[in-house]
Amino acid sequence: MSRRDRGYIIAVVVLLIVITVKSLAFDPVTLTDPSEVKFGTWVESELISEYDNVLFNSGLVKHRLVSVKQKEEEGDQLYVGKVRRYLFGVIPFSEMYIKEKTLLFE
Question: How far apart are CA 50 and CA 44, in angstroms?
């Protein structure tokens, strides 16, 4: 194995460690407002009911709520939740947004 090959292997290992720490420590959102907590649990229950197949049940693909923001759209106050999908729980590969009115969670 050449010096360049060893350098590439070391770089890949370091990047995998960095992405694992980022995915597990920095991505999950911590909700403090009670209505946001209700929204977060609602999002989790919706995701569980909508994505009920082998990939999600086996743990190969996982969902994680990474941010919750309030937004006003067409005169309605909305919660917008950003959900990220992870392969093996650490490698992000997809994002989606879920919107719902804030009145349902107060």
Answer: 10
